[in-house]
Amino acid sequence: MAVTKQEIIAALRQAYNMEVETVINYLANSLHLEGVRAEFIKQALATDIQEELGHAQQLGNRIKQL
């Protein structure tokens, strides 16, 4: 059974939305940190945010190509 272009786009959109949601969650979590390790965790989340944002951009570009 062949997968249609629309099914591929739908799957890519779902993955894109999940990446964007992850970015929002990481950003929100990084803003509300307290405690001894807060700065370390904030920096780690900042790195993860950039990585996840890159994934979202790649997915968005692929969706646009299709």
State the end-to-end distance: 20 Å
Structural class: mainly alpha
Main beta-sheet annotation: none
Poorly predicted tracts of residues: none
Quick check: average pLDDT?
Answer: 94
Q: What's the total count of β strands?
A: 0
Radius of gyration: 16 Å
The secondary-structure element order is HH
Principal-axis shape equals elongated
Helix run count: 2
Give the strand content. Answer: under 5%
Count of individual domains: 1
Proportion of residues in helical segments: over 70%
Please provide a written account of the structure:
This protein has one domain (5-65). It is built from two helices and no strands. It is mainly α and 66 residues long.
In a nutshell, what does this entry contain?
This protein is mainly α and 66 residues long. It contains two helices and no strands.
Blueprint of the fold:
Blueprint lengths: L4 H27 L6 H28 L1
Helix pairs in contact: 1-2
Features:
66 residues, 0% strand, elongated
